[in-house]
Design brief:
single chain; five-stranded antiparallel beta sheet
């Protein structure tokens, strides 16, 4: 797995900010990682501390590598401060779930853990996994050991490492999807960190630390997070251009031939820092199927060795590429691979959404894809979604697939079980996929308040009501069935991939958002800032006028994002470096 720092094609490149420098000359997180004893820190001791519901600052950072974020209930923060109490600390736990595939038995266990420790709710994320919120410190071990009983873990679900690996959900081509999923699963298992810290801290296994615990990552891991995804055209459901490293399946019929390789995508940015920006991944070539793991190691190692370790705001792979040059990065990766990439093969995307309702696979099985608004699974008044899915899990003989759009596919349903599944869907009122506008079905929101410490404004809790008001405008303009993508975040970090949506909203302050327009319908183009720091009244007024223009002047089949570019409402943005122009 180890890749040596040799055969550099351009030795004159600037090395003043990467891991070749002394730790004292790099950012403080590099020293923290180097001195963590491969991610152990003092986490075990902190878990035993009953005085505080939280962990010390250094261990909070290390916990991210274990898939855990310390948070607090921000709805209670001011009141607890007035009472001179520490914040209402709790933890978010993210499961590592390659490709979003989950068995019924695992679902049953996840449901049990959510009811016991996670506030009776599960959150489906935009990267095809589960998040638990509201877990208290003294319940962390029990929750993670419960996941272990279901053969699940949280390793590398956060931190400066390879995050959860995504994979397309394509019910029309189940055999091709199965081939790509197996590769994605193997990639996830290969690219996670190898330290014994996780098993020691959470499972109580004996410490087996050694000098070569991390043959690939080394003592300081990656400069920042690194996201990998696999997509099967013509659906760009995983938003391949938002991945640090993306693999675009190239097939003849249902026979997988290999992958086009795309590098350097990323959504994060910081308000007030124009040097930060989202970037679309660049397609650099084609590889055969048997070169995937080797390609992952080679490209990740380029970022490991040359990424910025002084400024974390500039540490993602996208900035390394733009600083060094795409051709330089490609040449370096090819040197490490030992062979040149082939020319990229032809492919095309037509959408990035989910096909809701029933669909048939190319085999003997069916799939029901269910709309889950913003990915939140809970028992709501009059809609016991949590209970319904638990009932299905107890009778299902296939799998569940979490989609990149925060929806849920009950997959691989046998012919015999389909009527039974259908009856449960009808019993709980989940068989009706119509009614919601196409905008609502294509919308996503990050969690934001009250749990995310970075949120500046509401997102998940607010977007449904905002869409209800936008739907009034859509109905007025006969656009209820127009497939427009809308994504909202509570801050500029881009967790719901807002910067490639046709309409993007990012939180600036309570009740205030930046409004972006012009993203590509299938994720192929960035959007552009249209209005800054506006509230709901202004958002609705702007959209009302835009929808009126769209209805009046759109061309046949023209998407909303394409229209606002053609009409000159905002300029087209393909290169991330021009996002803030």
């Amino acid at each position: 797995m180890s890749i040596e720092l040799a055969s550099m094609p351009h030795m004159e490149t600037d090395r003043s900010r990467d891991r070749s420098q002394p730790l004292a000359d790099l950012g403080p997180d590099e020293t923290l990682k180097a001195e963590s004893r491969h991610l152990r820190g003092s986490i075990s001791e902190g878990l035993l501390d009953e005085i505080s519901g939280g962990m010390i600052h250094t261990d909070q950072k290390l916990l991210k590598f274990h898939g855990i974020y310390q948070q607090d209930d921000r709805d209670l923060r001011d009141e607890r401060r007035r009472q001179k109490l520490e914040p209402a600390f709790q933890f978010m736990v993210r499961v590592r779930l390659p490709g979003g595939v989950c068995t019924p038995s695992q679902w049953i266990k996840l449901d049990k853990l959510a009811r016991a420790y996670g506030g009776g709710t599960l959150r489906l994320t935009t990267r095809q996994t589960f998040q638990f919120h509201w877990i208290l410190k003294h319940d962390l071990k029990a929750a993670i050991q419960g996941l272990h009983e279901a053969l699940l873990d949280t390793i590398a679900a956060c931190g400066d490492d390879t995050r959860g690996v995504m994979c397309a959900v394509n019910p029309a081509h189940s055999s091709l999807h199965a081939d790509v999923y197996e590769i994605a699963r193997d990639a996830s298992n290969h690219a996670t960190w190898k330290s014994g810290a996780y098993h020691e801290i959470w499972y109580g296994e004996r410490k087996v630390a050694s000098s070569d615990e991390e043959p690939f990552y080394g003592d300081t891991y990656l400069p920042r997070k690194f996201k990998i995804g696999f997509v099967v055209p013509p659906s760009n459901d995983i938003d391949i251009y938002a991945q640090d490293l993306g693999f675009i399946a190239i097939a003849k019929g249902h026979q997988l031939e290999g992958f086009n390789v795309a590098i350097g995508g990323g959504m994060g940015r910081t308000d007030g820092k124009p040097e930060t920006y989202p970037r679309l991944a660049s397609v650099i070539g084609f590889i055969p199927v048997d070169k995937v793991i080797q390609t992952i190691d080679s490209i990740m190692s380029v970022q490991r060795d040359f990424g910025d370790r002084k400024d974390r705001n500039h540490a993602r792979f996208k900035y390394t590429i733009d600083d060094k040059g795409l051709d330089w990065i490609k040449a370096e990766a090819e040197t490490r691979l030992g062979f040149p990439l082939e020319a990229a093969r032809t492919f095309s995307f037509s959408s990035n959404g989910d096909v809701l309702g029933w669909s048939e696979s190319d085999g003997e099985r069916a799939q029901f894809t269910m709309f889950i608004e913003n990915g939140r699974i809970a028992n709501y008044p009059g809609a016991a979604l949590m209970d319904a899915l638990l009932t299905i899990a107890k009778i299902h003989d296939g799998t569940f697939r979490l989609t990149p759009n925060q929806n849920l596919a009950i997959a691989d349903i046998s012919r015999e079980r389909r009527p039974v599944i259908q009856s449960v869907l009808e019993e709980f009122g989940l068989d009706r996929q119509a009614g919601a506008s196409a905008l609502r079905r294509n919308a996503m929101a990050c969690v934001a308040l009250p749990t995310c410490g970075l949120a500046m404004a509401e997102s998940e809790r607010y977007l449904p009501s905002l869409i209800s008001k936008i739907e009034i405008l859509l109905a007025r303009h006969n656009l209820m069935d127009a497939p427009i993508t809308l994504r909202m975040t509570g801050c500029p970090n881009g967790c719901s991939r807002p910067y490639i949506a046709e309409i993007g909203l990012t939180g600036r302050a309570p009740g205030k958002y930046n409004l972006y327009l012009g993203g590509g319908f299938h994720g192929q183009r960035l959007n552009k800032l249209y209005r800054e720091n506006i509230g709901e009244v202004a958002i609705l007024m702007e959209l009302d006028g835009l929808f009126a223009q769209y209805v009046r002047a759109r061309r046949t089949g023209e998407h909303f994002g394409d229209f606002v570019i053609r009409a000159g409402i905002v300029p087209e943005v393909i290169e991330g470096r021009h996002f803030n122009d």
